[in-house]
Specification:
Layout lengths: L10 H14 L4 H14 L2 H10 L1 H11 L1 H13 L1
Helix pairs in contact: 1-2, 2-4, 3-4, 4-5
Length: about 80
Amino acid sequence: MNQAPKSVLSNNNLRRMHGWASGVYPANWRDRCAVVTEYLNQLDDDTAADLIKKGWPEAFLAAERDWPEAFAIWKTELVES
């Protein structure tokens, strides 16, 4: 039987992340949250938990720093604006 991989984010943490991101990135918060969620899921549990404890700004910065290609589309949108 296939099981979905366990997310490091609890439902409460997901709601908090969505709330924070929707205020900071109103145009594309859902996509950004999806990228950061995937980034956190690829980290080991302790590293992800430490990053979450530091706060969402730090988690988003770490994901953007370590996965610049995932955030490239939003960088080009800023340049084109």
